[in-house]
Amino acid sequence: MLARTIAIFLWLGAATTSAAVIEPGKDAAGPGGLGAGNSRALPLLAQVSTVYGKKEARRIAIEVKPGSAEKIIRVKTERVFPIAILGAEDLDVIAINPRTIRVNAAGGKLVGGSDTRTCKREDANADGYQDLVCQVKIAAFRVEAGETVMNLVAESYDRVPLRGEAEIQLVTD
């Protein structure tokens, strides 16, 4: 919040400075505009828009193989496995764009994704909230057996970034 407030003040300051340079009847980008007399304003505006425009990823709860006590993925035989994005009071899973779901584990060596055809809404953990359960297809893998963390990233239709993680065990035989 502090960074956003500072960014707004910087943006307002840069806009005020650049507005003083624009002469009546001239285009802001043309002669006498932002580029001619105020070369410091453009990088400042670009930097502020980058800081102001970034959205921090919202943490979400996920469950690999919902309903199963074993969170084991057999990499050579299981090319598709279910993963649930768990709904909550403040997370309606209908707002999540399934085409943006991406997973990785073991340092990015196990990667995969989903699309709308392989997702359904159901209450996977019996908590009264709808969850989004997707069949995730493994696209590539070069992993060693052992415990690791599965990372999931997605976006809502409003372009809010989402991020969740769950512990899994990879088996290569």
CATH fold descriptor of the largest domain:
Immunoglobulin-like
Largest sheet descriptor:
10 strands, mixed
Classified in CATH, the superfamily of the largest domain is Immunoglobulins
Query: How many separate domains?
Result: 2
CATH uppermost class of the largest domain: Mainly Beta
> What is the tally of helical segments?
3
Question: Ends: how far apart?
Answer: 49 Å
- What radius of gyration results from the CA coordinates? 23 Å
Task: Please specify the SSE layout and strand pairing.
Layout lengths: L1 H20 L12 H4 L3 H13 L4 E2 L2 E3 L7 E3 L5 E6 L10 E10 L4 E4 L5 E4 L8 E11 L4 E11 L4 E11 L2
Parallel strand pairs: 1-10, 3-10
Antiparallel strand pairs: 2-4, 4-8, 5-6, 5-9, 6-8, 7-8, 9-10
Helix pairs in contact: 1-3
